[in-house]
Amino acid sequence: MLAVLSGEKHPPDMHPIEQSAVVRYTDAAGLADALRDADALFVYDFLSTAVPGAWHGSNRLRWLHIASAGVDPVMFPALRESDVVLTNSRGVFDDSIAEYVLGTILAFAKDLPGSLRLQQRSTWQHRETERIGGRSALVVGTGPIGRSIARLLKAAGLRVSGAGRTPRDGDPDFGEVRPSTELGDYVGEFDYVVAVAPLTEQTKGLFDANAFAAMRESARFINVGRGELVVTGDLVDALREGRIAGAALDVFDTEPLPVESPLWTMDNVLVSPHMSGDVVGWRNALVEVFADNFWRWRAGQPLRNVVDKRLGYVPSTN
């Protein structure tokens, strides 16, 4: 039996699977009951935090698939210690998130938000803008999404380096990859800093007051990873005090972003509601990845995108 945590909307294109297995759709409130006698769980509602609290209901679960690249909503001790195989939807969002990052860099360089504000006031005000060619970008997170970002930014003329768990030279996409544990030592060399790292115990709060103090005052910070990578209060202070020039934020430690957050009204901040990877057809693509693994699982074949539960992400060799 397959349990599907679907939230308000059921996933599309599930008919072939429904023809081959007993599928039980549920919301968060009914998840514990749905897990009883379920062999597999598809967490389609990937923002839900219901799985840890409902875990006691599972008595024969062997496989959990989440419809996102990040697995932190389902990464809790009981799952880590179990024999349940965890897979994710790695590969669906790579190019669309890269395009979002390039779009925000262009928006900052060409002052597109400023033009829109002036247009809304019917104000003709000539300004000079910036080139992005020759500027430098640090991509913190060297998985598939980070690699897509690096390739697109390099194609647009930026100089790109990476920061990750394992430092190395000669990387095909980043050239040099520096250790993210030493971020403060080199983050000040870059015009744009892009956060796309998975959320782990090592990366939580990585961008704090010290990190922002080490950046250039002209630097822009872009977060398309996880909100918890950032100490939000420290970011707000850095923006208010001019320690960095701006931020583009697609993810937040509290979502939806509270209406009272000062980030909403800062002229040097671009806010989007966790949508950088969500292009037309993305829900179907998520189901395609799950369905491919479902048929592999039914046939006893190796699954794609198996997460190393000690690391919290899919190793690059997997």
Automatic annotation (TrEMBL):
Task: List, in alphabetical order, the Gene Ontology terms for molecular function in this entry.
Answer: NAD binding; oxidoreductase activity, acting on the CH-OH group of donors, NAD or NADP as acceptor
The family this protein is said to belong to: Belongs to the D-isomer specific 2-hydroxyacid dehydrogenase family.
CDD domains reported for this sequence = 2-Hacid_dh_1 (cd05300)
Pfam families attached to this UniProt entry: 2-Hacid_dh, 2-Hacid_dh_C
Q: Which InterPro entries match?
A: D-isomer_2_OHA_DH_cat_dom, D-isomer_DH_CS, D-isomer_DH_NAD-bd, NAD(P)-bd_dom_sf
Q: Which residues does the UniProt record annotate as the domain D-isomer specific 2-hydroxyacid dehydrogenase NAD-binding?
A: 103-276
The keyword NAD belongs to this UniProt entry's keyword annotation: yes
UniProt cross-references to Gene3D superfamilies, sorted A to Z: NAD(P)-binding Rossmann-like Domain
Bilayer-crossing residues are none
Q: Does the keyword NAD apply?
A: yes
Q: Which UniProt keywords apply?
A: NAD, Oxidoreductase
Q: Which SUPFAM superfamilies did the record assign? A: Formate/glycerate dehydrogenase catalytic domain-like (SSF52283), NAD(P)-binding Rossmann-fold domains (SSF51735)
User: What is the protein name stated in its UniProt record?
Assistant: Phosphoglycerate dehydrogenase
Q: Which residues form the D-isomer specific 2-hydroxyacid dehydrogenase catalytic domain?
A: 10-307
**Superkingdom of this protein's organism:** Bacteria
Source taxonomy lineage? Bacteria, Bacillati, Actinomycetota, Actinomycetes, Pseudonocardiales
